[in-house]
Amino acid sequence: MDLNDYFYFVHVVEKGGFTPAGRALGVPKSRLSRHVQQLEDRLEARLIQRTSRQFAVTDVGATFYRFARAALDEVDAAEAAVQRQTNTLDGQVRLTCSVGMAQFALRDALSQFLVDNPKVDIIQHVTNRAVDLVEGGFDMAIRAHTGPLPDSSLIQRRLAPAPWHLFAGPAYLEQAGVPTSPEALDGHAGLKLGYKPERGRWSLRGPEGVTATVPYAPRLCSDDMVTLKHAATEGLGIVGLPGYIGRDDVEAGRLVRVLPEWTAGDAEISLLLPSRRGIMPAVQVLAEHLQEVFPVVTRLR
Asked: % helix / strand / coil in the chain, to the nearest 5?
């Protein structure tokens, strides 16, 4: 038995053809065809019907695929178990995330993982656009969201809650006054996430689920949370940000939480994987690492 035959066959089936599988794996289409042909000759069965215009997995091929996929999963699990015990985990992990996620939540988490796993490399793609994991060839995505993510074939793992809070610099509050209720926010200068200059709105949730909405005219609109946070520390207004982004500045005295008993948004951070099966050991271990550290790195102390 040649496991390469199994490996290439499974990828051809999952990618829906020899050409897309060859592109994803970075190998010639002729090599994939040769391995699948070897597999069919040994089994004396046609697994894939292919012509210049058609690609289809036969009934026998579909049955064999289920067992071949399971066999490869067991091989991956066996390698991961040994690599963890011998500290020889290796490979490359490609992940995508937003700018804010990269600058704050992931910064220390990825560095620590690389220190603990010196033979693993990470390729981090940073963008605020939603990226297709399969088309982009990514192993995982880390995304913050305020509601349920769309149903899809992606595997979703919850990492941590990420509630938003209002922050302002001490100098601003000394000059403009400290709001003691949502109504007292009226007339305060706001800093708005998003480049569109329409009127902003703070949507607040307080004790016992009480809610309040306060409109404001933004002094600064930006897609960059670092820019907004810096403006707040400079005394330019009140900003709503994920709690973990303002945490260090609060502890250092550069920011103050405004209406600390109220939140300014209920968000979560999730990890997305393109498939439950065939996850490389390095990807699986990084996913487990993020699930362990995110509740800590995103907590507002």
From this structure: 45, 25, 30
